[in-house]
Write a structure and sequence with these properties.
Elements: H1 3-16, E1 38-40, E2 45-59, E3 62-69, E4 77-81, E5 85-93, E6 101-103, E7 125-131, E8 139-144, H2 151-156, E9 161-166, H3 173-176, E10 179-188, H4 204-207, E11 213-216, E12 223-224, E13 231-238, E14 245-247, E15 254-259, E16 262-270, E17 273-275, E18 280-286, E19 294-295, E20 300-301, E21 326-327
Parallel strand pairs: 1-4, 2-5, 4-9, 10-13
Antiparallel strand pairs: 2-3, 5-7, 6-8, 8-9, 10-11, 12-19, 13-18, 14-17, 15-16, 15-18, 20-21
């Protein structure tokens, strides 16, 4: 990010309020999702083991039969920097074939880098390797399966994880000193025995899978805190297969600083943030109310419908879908 852009960043946030740049280190206060425990690169390299597996997990206090990465939903958060070497020893312990896709990364779509045509059978393993360009844009990305005909079903079952590329935006002092939280938004549909509900062939698959259990980082109504005059950075991923989210914070504006494509040239104020499936955004929130906490709550349904263009399939995000908008209040 250039000096000029940093000046724009400071000017935008200063005009919005005159409170001091004093972000307190106040972290996550409820829940225990492993999304908050990163696997970060060291010395320019990220080398790890990742296993896709099936099993029963606790999901918002309910037993659930899910797919997971390393036994958690969402999977471990991976953190790298531009120019890093990445080596992932991937094992498939699912009852069906799968693979890995690094959504948004500019790495070769061939060989064993980001090849969606690789198919790892049950019980087999694959080493994924690539080097991120030293000019790669920092931002919020994610990983998930991308095997033909099974994408939506395996993502629906829990195979999602955040992938963060650190870079120039993170080096701006005000952003570096801010608190940072990660919100993986995902819905699930479970029956009374904790088994995933599967849609009928039509019309539910054409409209997309949606469940009535809407979670953040695998938790129901987790709480994040920000102190008076504090600054909080939220990295948000819509990891749902079909659901759209319209996000709001009561009496708190949000300042958009990055989208799917990475940092934007100048922050701008939002009163709400609409995220389509697979979409990411980064926003800043200022603690402009009396001392206390800002919490995420179970969304309230607004029943606003999106149009359906008839091109959606059960392989992923091929078009717009019918879905509800939700408000975090």
């Amino acid at each position: 990010m250039t000096l000029c852009t940093r000046r724009k960043f400071l000017r935008t946030l200063t005009v919005a309020g005159t409170t001091a740049w004093a972000a307190s280190r106040i972290g996550f206060v409820s829940g225990s999702s492993l999304v908050l425990r990163p696997m970060a690169s060291q010395g320019g390299a990220l080398d790890l083991s990742l296993t896709a597996q099936a099993g029963r997990l606790s999901l918002a206090g309910r037993p659930a039969a899910l797919y997971s990465y390393n036994g958690s939903v969402p999977g471990p958060r991976l953190e790298i920097r531009s120019g890093d070497d990445v080596r992932i020893r991937f094992a498939n312990r699912l009852p069906e074939s799968t693979n890995l896709h690094f959504h948004g990364l500019h790495v070769p779509p061939s060989g064993n880098a980001n090849n969606v045509f690789l198919e790892i059978p049950p019980g087999e393993s694959q080493i994924y390797e690539f080097t991120l360009s030293p000019h790669h844009r920092c931002g919020t990305y994610w990983y998930h399966p991308h095997i033909h005909h099974l994408i939506a079903r395996q993502v629906w079952a829990g195979l999602v994880g955040l992938l963060i590329v650190r870079g120039e935006l993170d080096d701006i002092p005000e952003i570096r000193d801010a608190d940072e939280e990660y919100l993986v938004l995902k819905d699930f549909g479970l029956d009374a025995n904790g088994k995933l509900l599967m849609p009928d062939p039509t019309p539910q698959i054409m409209q997309g899978r949606e469940g009535d259990l809407v979670l953040v980082n695998g938790e129901l109504n987790p709480t994040f805190r920000i102190s008076k005059d504090g600054l909080l950075r939220l990295r948000v991923l819509n990891a749902s297969v079909a659901r759209y989210y319209r996000l709001q914070l009561e009496d708190h504006p949000m300042y958009l600083i990055a989208t799917d494509g990475g940092p934007i040239g100048e922050p701008f104020e939002l009163r709400e943030l609409l995220l389509a499936p697979g979409e990411r955004a980064e926003v800043l929130v200022r603690g402009e109310r009396s001392p206390g906490s800002v919490s995420t709550h179970e969304p309230a349904i607004s029943q606003v419908q999106h149009g359906h263009d008839g091109r959606r399939t059960n392989d992923g995000w091929d078009g717009e879908n019918a879905g509800n908008d939700y408000f975090f209040q």
